[in-house]
Amino acid sequence: MTELRIEGLSKRFGTYLALDDVSITIPNGKFVCLLGPSGCGKTTLLRLIAGLETPSEGRILVGGADLSAVPSHKRGMGMVFQSLALFPHLDVAENIAYPLAIRGTDRASRQATAARLLDLVKLPGMGGRRIHQLSGGQRQRVAIARGLAIDPKVFLLDEPLSALDAGLREHMQIELRQIQQSLGVTTVVVTHDQKEALTMADLVIVMKDGKVQQAGTPMEIYHAPANAFVADFIGSTNLIPCRWDGQAIEVLGHRLTPAEGDRIATAPGLAQLSVRPEHVEIATPGTGFAAEITFIRDLGESVHFVTRCGAQTITAQVAPGARPPFGVGDAVSLSFRPGKRVVLA
Ligand code: ATP
């Protein structure tokens, strides 16, 4: 079993606290994405797991064994860096087998491993090429193959797909996931791309300011964000200042009584109401929130009505078939679908 456990991990650079008391358990064989804005500590956490940095506090365990005294090259971890760090003077097969060469593995085994991994990453027969003869996507595959060469217990990748264009990137997300599943290797990927994390991961760990904000499945993160930061970072939700008084949600001059399915994830007091655009209903002026349409965005598969409600911008999303006949400047009435409202700290 290669469960990866992180216990009370902190990292200081001088007086700066880059990682603040992080505890996470990653079950054997799971694919985990560390997700968060630039500077939140994702790479620092990955480098600590790899043994490239030393923790200020806390420990890392793999399969129950404490790694504190284990140097990086003995941790059994495969790594793919954002820069890829491929060697131009070596051919593709030598690049892939490099981690084995520095461990003293014989030439025949190195060649066999390189050939096997080239098949796995769909570059069969390309072992003799030089790095400069490869496309960006092919280089990415070589870096992934090299990360897997030592048959790692844990596979660590830092923004592995960030240099690829959008189309290739989506394709590689699926391929990376398939490779990981075929090997069953416990994998941790750093990304700042919400969609990428939700597409690939079994478990998403959302970070901010060196702290874990939420760890959960993509469904949990998307549908039950732990706080307003997670809801906002995962994207596209309406966040509206409100007050939860223990019985009703006071928002934009209205009092809403929670219905079955609504989620109150904070103590009474000032809070944020999160309502996804697909759960905002838009109608002719009536009893709901009075608003004015300021912009209409037609994305083909959905139509977004951006409205102003007092000082607040609220977006409603409808299917093209259900598009109401409103235009920019029209007065409308908004309502938030009961059972889909979330009150967050
Ligand atoms: P990005 O998405 O931009 O790569 P990140 O979430 O991976 O960001 P880290 O690289 O882990 O963030 O950095 C976290 C914080 O720690 C940043 O404020 C960074 O400036 C700081 N930091 C990282 N490494 C060092 C270092 N060696 N010395 C000093 N400060 C550092």
From TrEMBL:
Keywords: ATP-binding, Nucleotide-binding, Transport. One of its GO terms (cellular component) is ATP-binding cassette (ABC) transporter complex. It comes from the Bacteria. It holds the Pfam family ABC_tran. Residues 4-234 form the ABC transporter domain. GO terms for biological process: quaternary ammonium group transport. GO terms for molecular function: ATP binding; ATP hydrolysis activity; transmembrane transporter activity. PANTHER family: SPERMIDINE/PUTRESCINE IMPORT ATP-BINDING PROTEIN POTA (PTHR42781), SPERMIDINE_PUTRESCINE IMPORT ATP-BINDING PROTEIN POTA (PTHR42781:SF4). This is ABC transporter ATP-binding protein. It comes from Paenirhodobacter huangdaonensis.
